[in-house]
Amino acid sequence: MSQAASSAESFPDIVRWDASRLSSAIHARDVSCREVMSAYLAHIDRFNPRINAIVSRRDSDELIREADQCDLELDQGRSRGWLHGIPQAIKDLSDARGLPTSMGSPLFVGQSAGSDSLMAARLRQAGALFIGKTNTPEFGLGSHTFNEVHGATRNPWQPALSAGGSSGGAAAALACRLLPVADGSDMMGSLRNPAAFNNVFGLRPSFGRVPMLSAGDNFGQQLSTAGPMARSVSDLSRLLSLQAGAHSSVPLSITDDPTLLLPPFETSVAGTRIGWIGDWEGYLAMEEGVLPLCEKALNVFQTLGCEIAPVTPGIDPDSLWSAWLVLRQWAVAGNLSSLWQDSRCRDALKPEACWEIERGVALSAMQVFEANRTRSRWYACLLELFERYDYLALPSAQVFPFPVEQRWPSEINGRTMDTYHRWTEVVIPGSMSGCPVISLPAGFNDNGLPMGVQLIGRHRAERAMLALAGAYEAAATGWIDALPDPMMTQGVL
User: Fold this and answer.
1) What b-and-e string marks burial along 210-227, b requiring 16 or more CB atoms within 10 Å of the CB?
2) Which of 40, 195, 485, 491 has its CA 20 to 30 A from that of 334?
3) pTM of the full predicted structure?
4) How far apart are CA 156 and CA 490, in angstroms?
5) Which CATH fold topology does 3-311+388-489 show?
């Protein structure tokens, strides 16, 4: 039996459908919410022990009862929304009422959320049934999903390797069809790196598109944002539309109507201009094979009539990295320094967290100010580039998935990485821009490992970006719908 045939048999129709098709089938009463929940729970029980994407799993009988209630509501002519009766798991950095929010830290084991985060509340209101959480590295630090609470998430394509992070549990769950869509968040590529490692879509929205309530700073910190991950562009746009929308408690949130993000999209993308940054003239270390695979993916855009040209931004990339370090350390220290200052908690923090905090608390106000000035210069540089190009393209990652036991890649192609996250520097231009950035599946290398290519667009230009991604999805038929080998993903290691 071929791998494709084996995969088709091991991945039932219900879990193979994207969320848009699943929602249509539920509302047409072609399948019941009970059938959907039962199919997903059985599939999760079969495959999740191997990849460890979903954690804090809820009781099956309770979930079936909730699905039955959704069926009853449909019988009465009532629908909660697009996700009515559809299983969902929230990233374990975000609160979901009644579920633990460990954030991958031993310090928070056993603590359950008394209420939903804003994003979780919006998904629940749209009908999602929360079955558990998706795994993440401790406090989301690092693009490799492992922690002392739940262990490591493994890559569905090769379980001996990393699923990326910090939304690694979400991306692996999508790839293995344990969820139809998934939420994530992105400070340093956490919606893009795992998307690349798992052959799915991830979209970091314009800052303010998806508001995030904070118990502290609602003005200064503008690095992290929540966003959608999906296996199709239609699902990506629909989930983004649910997550988006201004909130009065988040003064910098975008006030645009979120329904404007919904399909259908324009089908012609001919004439779209894409500037290929690549490895930034050798500045970014790249594992062998990454650039050719991404360039091959860009050829798909050429078949659609897009124009591709090499470009080098007019800013010193190392100055951008230095500014990023300051702003990230400032943010991490602001969030976690109270734990670090408590000697009883400090020993429970992973070394990377302590390193960020120690450097963050030593920063001066002028260092933060200068870092923000550099960030502003980068945005001004982008505005000039967007006069010549509609999008800027880079690889979504600098390495292919690496051994799951490895904390982080310490060298790339003979070049030493001087921090635990330097190997993901390619995502920094997008993170520092405040603009929307999408990671598209770019295909697989000769060893069967996935990669992605990211596009940076103009601020608030998500709709045009989704239209371009949809055209790419329709043309890139050789890899986007691929399924992992069930013989690799089934069972417990």
Assistant:
1) bbbeeeeeeeebbbbbbb
2) 195
3) 0.97
4) 9
5) Amidase signature (AS) enzymes (3.90.1300)
